[in-house]
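User: Predict the structure for this protein chain, please.
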Amino acid sequence: MPAVNLDLSVVIPIHNEAENLEALVAEFRDVLDRWGRSYELLLIDDGSTDGSFEILQGLQAKTPQLRVIQFRRNFGQTAAFAAGFANARGRLVVTADGDLQNDPRDIPAMVGRLEGSDGTGPYDLVCGWREKRQDPFLHRRLPSMLANRLISWATGVRLRDYGCSLKVFRSEVVKELRLYGEMHRFLPALASEMGVRIAEQAVNHRARVHGRSKYGISRTLRVVLDLMTVKFLLSYSTRPLQMFGPIGMLAGGTGVFILAYLSFAKFVLHQGIGERPLLLFGILLVVTGVQLVSFGLLAELQSRTYHESQGKPIYVIRRILGSPDS
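Assistant: Here is the predicted structure, written as structure tokens:
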């Protein structure tokens, strides 16, 4: 990987956006050239079938700041962001969509806020907030509003707009992220595990002119499932027994209490218990409790194997002051 010598890397996943590409590249070039900082445009063709890559090839031949990564097939937006982060050479990394709905003119102000030029920073991550969103209310904005509240509650990272792709990161933040599934939606929450400082800024949002949106209500279930994964990673990835243990002990303890009561009824009160559903329920609770505690112990072993085999620390250092020899 070449040494980092650029101010900015703009990472944009592309999937069947042939009609938008020329305007997209021209608009980002115009804004960033006038801004005056060194930059690269890193466009990831996520298995497009509409000729997007051929257009990108032509644009790249005329645009030295443009780099193009082509996937062999469609792997999804999360994979495209992961590839972009891995290949980004800039000190800062900007993410955006390829549908022209994000306005690149917001980038200088977002970078300024990240760097503290507005007097509120510095930050490690600035997230765009589509204050006046230009999307249909019922099947786009309403599900997004509900999802934002759910994600904020579950992760503890309260943002008004998790779905806005326009974000600015410090490079060292995104380089540490490991993305799977549909987790690009949860980048701020995943980054919060490293103790980053996050700000949110209102940005311009424009209506889509060409092509069709790839989002809809059908993705809601996948978002909920990935949110469960993110919640577990944020809260219990290094201590899974503390998640499964209490549930197992509660179930097992309740089962033991039920069986103790039934034993008293049989041996002291001489009552028949063989046909009572409560007997099977008590046994089920005890077995379930043992299984959950055992599962937690196995997860503890796996967690340690995961961190130790990769040399992955359980902490993140922001800086060290003082000479190591002092």
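The longest helix spans residues 277-309.
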